[in-house]
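S.,

As promised, the FE2/S2 (inorganic) cluster run. Input:
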Amino acid sequence: MDVPDYGTVLDALLAIREGVDETLTLRCSCRSHICGSCVMKINHRSALACKTKLQAAQERAGSGHPIVVQPAGNMPVIKDLVVDLEGLWSKVRAVDPYLQPTGPVPEREYIVSNEAMLNVREATACILCGACMSECTVLEVDDRFLGPAPLAKAWRFTEDPRDGADRARLEALSQPGGVWDCTHCFQCVEVCPKDVRPMDRILELRRRAMAEGFTDNNGSRHSQAFVDSIGSTGWLDETRVAMRSTAGLRELRGWVGVGWRSFVRGKVPLRHRPIPGAMHVRAIFQRAAANDPPRQVRRREQ
Ligand code: FES
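Predicted complex:
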C-alpha cells in the first residue's frame, strides 16, 4: 500500500478495504486508541492498530519484509481480523465488575479521598481491548483462567474504599482459574496499551488473599513454602517446596510420576552443596520482609 509513514496500521487496513478488497473485515471505531476495538496481532504482537505507526511496524518487521497482521490470539476468529470477544466479556462479568457497598448509603455522593482514587487510576484506564488476553500464555493452554484484564478489573474493585465485598471477591479469586494460575510471563504488561500492568494487580490480589486467610490452595502453599525456604536458609529447596505446595499425601501421590522423571533427570537433588553467600540472601530477604508489612495492615494505617 502507498500510505504515508506517519499513518497507522489501521489507516493502511482501511485503505486496503476502500481500494483493494472491500470484503476485508476488521473492527475499529474511535481511531484514537480509546475504544479498544482495533486490537489485533501486528508482527505477531498484540496491539491497537490505530496506535501502531506504520513506520514503527515496518522497522519491527525488518526492511523489505511485509508487516504481518493477524486476528487477536486466544479468541475464536469470526472473520479476517474480527474475533469473538464473548470469552472476555463473560470473564469480566464473572468478577462482578461493579461496586458492592455495605453500610448506609450516604445522602449525597460517596466521598473518596484523592489518594484512594489515585491508587486505582491506572487500573481504571483499562479499555478492555483484550490485548492482554490475546497475548496471555496461560489462556493459550487453559481457557479456565480468568485472564489478565478481568483480574485487573477485580483488583480495581477490591481496592475501592466504597466496595464492601473484598473478602468474598478474594475468596472467589483464590479458586482454580483465579489469581494463582498466572505464570508471571509479563506478556500482559508488555502489550497493554494503557499501562494497566495487569500482572502486578494479580500479584497484589494474591498478597491480599493470603493476608485475608485464603491460603487453602496450592498457590498459597507454594508461595509460603518458597518464602520459608529462602527466609530460613537463603536458598530454594525445590523438593521441599514442591512437596509443601500440595494439599497432602493424596495429591502428592498423583505427582509420583513427575517426581520420578525429575529425579532421573537430576532435578531432585538429595543433598544441596553449600552455597557461598546464601546467608547474605537470607539477611536481605528478612530485611525486605520486615520493611513490607502485610497489605491489610497498610490499608488500615492509611
Ligand atoms: S479504533 Fe478505537 S482503539 Fe483503535
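DSSP finds 15 helices and five strands in the chain. Confidence is low (pLDDT under 50) at residues 296-302.

- D.
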